[in-house]
């Protein structure tokens, strides 16, 4: 995950060294939180993983909750962005398939972030419920209306647009959130190819589902 100033995690006025230290703390915290969750994580663990002293971490963040909150805020924007990219100007089935592929790529490239987000959902999203019911809901409503328009025009097969989006989340994020299970069931022979296989399978699945 890129913890540059563009991520929203770096307030103005920070020196290069301060930005670097904050970035190291975020990277370490992402590892720890994705493994242990907020409840199981400690500042000591984060400091050790970052190669810093605990007082050094506390200099930048007064609590593990503060680090966790900033991570979630950055993650939410990154997680939502692929849905924003569905364009009304594109070919409908291709646009939805491209969304599926973007989400699967995120599971491959950002498994820690996916597991952190999943852990927050399992805990009833106490820190981001307002965003889920606000910005995310508004975006899903917008894209569902777009898909419903395509359905009405006969360009996408009839289906429930919101449940389509839910199914895309489920079938793509599964490969990150349940990675151990996927690798265990597929076995060593599929270790290097599992995402390519998932890409091919999901392309076939959604193409058949979406094509009028």
What does this structure look like?
This protein has 212 residues and is mainly alpha-helical. The protein has 2 domains: 5-67, Arc Repressor Mutant, subunit A; 85-210, Tetracycline Repressor, domain 2, CATH 1.10.357. Helix content is 74%, strand content 0%. It contains 10 helices and no strands. Helix 1 (16-40) packs across helix 6 (111-122), helix 5 packs parallel to helix 8 and helix 5 runs antiparallel to helix 10. The longest helix has 25 residues, at 16-40. The chain is globular.
Secondary-structure map with pairings?
Elements: H1 16-40, H2 43-50, H3 54-60, H4 64-84, H5 92-109, H6 111-122, H7 129-152, H8 161-177, H9 179-186, H10 194-210
Helix pairs in contact: 1-2, 1-4, 1-6, 2-3, 5-8, 5-10, 6-8
The total strand number stands at: 0
Radius of gyration: 19 Å
Coarse shape: globular
Low-confidence stretches: 5-11
Strand content: under 5%
Quickly describe the structure.
This protein is an all-alpha fold. It has helices at residues 16-40, 43-50, 54-60, 64-84, 92-109, 111-122, 129-152, 161-177, 179-186, 194-210.
């Amino acid at each position: 995950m890129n913890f540059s100033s563009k991520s929203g995690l770096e307030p103005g006025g920070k020196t290069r060294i301060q930005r670097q230290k904050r970035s190291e703390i975020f990277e370490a915290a992402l590892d720890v939180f994705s493994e242990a969750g907020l409840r199981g994580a400690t500042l000591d663990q984060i400091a050790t993983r970052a190669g810093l002293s605990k007082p050094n971490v506390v200099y930048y963040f007064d609590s593990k909750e503060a680090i966790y909150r900033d991570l979630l805020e950055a993650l939410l924007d990154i997680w939502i962005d692929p849905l924003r990219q569905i364009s009304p100007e594109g070919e409908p089935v291709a646009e939805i398939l491209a969304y599926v592929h973007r989400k699967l790529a995120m599971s491959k490239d950002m498994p820690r972030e996916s597991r952190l987000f999943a852990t927050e959902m399992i805990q009833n999203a106490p820190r981001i419920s307002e965003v889920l019911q606000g910005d995310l809901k508004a975006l899903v409503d917008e894209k569902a209306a777009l898909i419903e328009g395509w359905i009405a025009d006969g360009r996408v097969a009839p289906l429930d647009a919101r449940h389509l989006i839910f199914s895309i989340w489920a079938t793509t994020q599964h490969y990150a959130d349940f990675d151990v299970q996927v690798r265990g069931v597929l076995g060593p022979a599929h270790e290097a190819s599992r995402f390519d296989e998932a890409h091919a399978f999901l392309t076939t699945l959604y193409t058949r589902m979406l094509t009028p």
